[in-house]
DNA sequence: ATGTGTGTCCGAAACGTTTCGGACATATGG
DNA sequence: CCATATGTCCGAAACGTTTCGGACACACAT
């Protein structure tokens, strides 16, 4: 059975015997309305099940909030590949809901300008702000949003002029992994990067080099292996490293998928993990408990990231001065992919 | 630099020398406008970068589409736990984008009525329809949406009156798993269910029983183990089964996480998988390639499910008669968690 | 000449809300 | 008693769009 028309402010006014003006002011908590009058208005509104029409409200005042946050998935079919994203997304939705916001998910159409999705959302006033994932050091989306003056928060610090709110990892994020490996006795420590044009990979790489320096170990260029984000790219990248006559005894991968790729490549070369090669991942993805051997990895926690992302974004939207950059410190989860180095 | 006011229909009218009325009609492709006039209007609109104000449009005609689909996450912190969801979501967003829709993600607040989120979205006219995941045989959300006349599609068939559009598994979905096990020589085949009040679990259970019957095997009640959705609930559920003095030689789990739980429980009891116990999962989650042993599992494909869900929902929205129920047939991915049964 | 169509066009009203400017009482101070 | 302030209230306009009802010009038939 279909409902009748939904009640309008006019109905509430008639019901309460007030003018439309005064009803509106009463419901919106303005000052110049007598206590008893407000009471009557509220009571009538409640009795009728009145809920204000957002379209009309926003037509009148284009600045009212939509109470939704935008998140544009990155292009390419393998975008979400990272199991990490699923959990992160859930955390974001959760936190947003608890603050009264929803999440608008979209994705660029095939070979569309990356900022087009953002333009659409802004023009349509569908969102109050954006969460940006997988941001690059030089990212047109960031430039666009800064210029447009729309609130947004990035995961990873993006350099440049203008207000750029971010939630990022501490600058010594890789340190615990290197400390752990050094404590085991490793001195030949390599790394499997993600593409370094991305802010997060760049930070991890800096931290990796600093951590080595901190232990007086020099970073060897031939032990640094550029990789993509996914398992298969890591498998490919591992080829020459393992063929080298002076391979590292330990490897830090910038995400768990890449670590799995490294483990697979090692297996293909008949190299035992962890006894011939130790591997540390990053993210503590669900699968890292299940791999063989179970993966030692750095854990930031999807929930913590999601929570901070939303908390700061909502702060930026509702009270720009209260938003603040946040740095998260990863914790090392030690499993079985790391061990003492082989004696040579 | 901040833009000036965005152009309105009035501006386009002035620019093109037409009335507002005629401009509107020209832009909306009505009949009674001369070819040259339409030309002028379109040209002016384009020159000004005019884009119609949705609020105003919808204030005037409440029936215009919002072009977004709603998806409400299930409550509880472990909602998304299933890595399967991440991929499914990405597939849904992709397919929606290619049809010009976005996805509105929300989640119920703590101890809130499950339908409240749907009510909010409908009242606010934020979405044109819903995708329902993890639906139960008797689901208040379904009843609500049917009554309200809002288009929706469920994953799994929900019985009851009214139009209920669904994408579901074929009724013999479990058959390939059982066939495979029987071919290996198994006759004692058990199953680890998900809660049977959910439509998908119910269908899988029916199919499981039918598949056994098809091979002339009787379903033994003590080989049917009720489990939750997640690994830990499966570990717990496995206890008594493995302690029994006549355990099955093979087990079909209703999802991969549960299968992992079963593998873990087996390991704890010193039971070798696959040589003492074969295990088949469902979903082909990312991690199933990595577990030890790698999991033999039934695969529907998140992308296929997401694509069909969106395709049918959009059909239901835009042309109700063209929407149709869809049945998907899973395919068996054979890995190493299944083998011939032990000779006793 | 009058009437009937047909192809184009437009004014004005309407959607539901918020707010500007003022009105009307009553109280306060002189 | 008048002037001024204060506490409440309301009418009307405005946001940008669509559409109803009609108007106008012209062609064609009568």
Structural features, described:
Two copies of one chain form a homodimer. Helices cover 40% and strands 15% of the residues of chain A. With 344 residues, the first copy, chain A, is α/β, with parallel strands linked by helices. The model of chain A has no long low-confidence stretch (mean pLDDT 92). A six-stranded parallel sheet of chain A has the order 2-1-3-4-5-11, sandwiched between helices. The radius of gyration of chain A is 26 Å and the shape is elongated. In chain A, α1 (9-16) packs across α2, α1 crosses α3 (35-48) and α10 (231-243) crosses α11. The first copy, chain A, is built from twelve helices and twelve strands. At the A-B interface, α4, α5 and β2 of A face α4, α5 and β2 of B. β2 (102-106) of chain A pairs antiparallel with β2 (102-106) of chain B, so a sheet runs across the interface. The structure holds a DNA duplex (30 and 30 nucleotides).
Q: Characterize the biggest β-sheet of chain A.
A: 6 strands, parallel
User: What is the oligomeric state here?
Assistant: homodimer
Q: What is the overall shape of chain A?
A: elongated
- The SSE string of chain A, one letter per element, is HHHHEHEHEHEEHEHEHEHEEHEE
Span between termini of chain A: 80 Å
Class from secondary-structure proportions of chain A:
alpha/beta
If strands are numbered along the chain, what order do they take across the biggest sheet of chain A? 2-1-3-4-5-11
Radius of gyration of chain A: 26 Å
Please give the most extensive interface between any two protein chains, plus how many residues each contributes. A-B, 47 and 47 residues
Give me the count of strands of chain A.
Answer: 12
Q: If helices are DSSP runs of H or I spanning 4 or more residues, what is the number of helices of chain A?
A: 12
Helix content of chain A: 40-55%
Strand content of chain A: 5-15%
Low-pLDDT regions of chain A: none
Mean pLDDT across the residues of chain A is 92
């Amino acid at each position: 059975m279909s409902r009748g028309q939904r009640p309008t402010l006019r109905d509430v006014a008639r019901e309460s015997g007030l003018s439309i003006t005064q009803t509106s002011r009463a419901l919106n908590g303005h000052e110049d309305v007598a206590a008893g009058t407000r009471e009557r208005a509220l009571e009538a509104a409640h009795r009728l099940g009145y809920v204000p029409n957002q379209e009309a409200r926003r037509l009148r005042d284009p600045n009212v909030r939509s109470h939704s946050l935008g998140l544009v998935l990155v292009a390419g079919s393998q975008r979400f590949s990272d199991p990490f994203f699923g959990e992160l997304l859930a955390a974001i939705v959760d936190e947003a809901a608890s603050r009264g916001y929803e999440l608008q998910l979209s994705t660029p159409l095939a070979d569309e300008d990356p900022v087009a999705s953002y333009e659409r959302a802004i023009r349509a006033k569908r969102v109050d702000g954006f969460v940006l994932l997988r941001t690059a050091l030089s990212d047109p989306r960031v430039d666009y949003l800064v210029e447009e003056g729309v609130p947004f928060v990035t995961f990873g610090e993006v350099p440049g002029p203008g207000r750029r709110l971010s939630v990022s990892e501490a600058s010594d994020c890789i340190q615990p992994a290197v400390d752990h490996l050094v404590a085991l006795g490793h001195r030949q420590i390599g790394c499997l990067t993600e593409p370094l044009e991305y802010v997060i990979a760049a930070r991890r790489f800096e931290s990796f080099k600093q951590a080595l320096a901190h232990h007086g170990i020099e970073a060897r260029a031939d032990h640094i292996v550029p990789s993509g984000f996914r398992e298969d790219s890591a498998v490919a990248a591992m080829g020459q490293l393992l063929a080298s006559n002076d391979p590292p005894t330990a490897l830090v991968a910038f995400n768990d998928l890449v670590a799995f790729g490294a483990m697979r490549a090692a297996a293909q070369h008949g190299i035992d993990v962890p006894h011939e090669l130790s591997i540390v991942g990053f993210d503590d993805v669900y699968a890292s408990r299940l791999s063989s051997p179970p993966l030692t990895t750095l854990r930031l926690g999807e929930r913590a990231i999601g929570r901070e992302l939303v908390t700061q974004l909502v702060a930026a939207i509702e009270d720009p001065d209260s938003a603040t950059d946040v740095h998260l410190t990863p914790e090392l989860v030690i499993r079985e992919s790391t061990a003492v180095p082989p004696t040579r």
